[in-house]
Description:
Blueprint: E1 4-10, E2 13-18, E3 23-30, E4 33-41, H1 50-64, E5 68-71, H2 77-86, E6 89-91, E7 97-98
Parallel strand pairs: 4-5, 5-6
Antiparallel strand pairs: 1-2, 2-3, 3-4, 6-7
Amino acid sequence: MSKLLYRNAFADTYDFKLEDGHCVANCAFDKGWFTVYLIETEKGFENNGECQRLLKALMERAKEEKQEFALWCPMNEKIQHIADKLNIKVYKEENETNN
């Protein structure tokens, strides 16, 4: 798997991407938790598994750090499908959750 890169984005959030990837996830983390707030794929690279590969890498990182992994972002059908497929907890408005 490609190396996972990250940089400080704003406040206490970080942008993560795979070294050879075209998808970026904005995340925050602390002891015990790791949350994805936004995930975006560069135009022209959609629908080729970029988002899924990045989420799998982030899940692995969270697992290694013993952090609970979840998504908390505006959901569309594609992201919801990936979250369901990978069994990722999704936080929605007003603390509503699924998975």
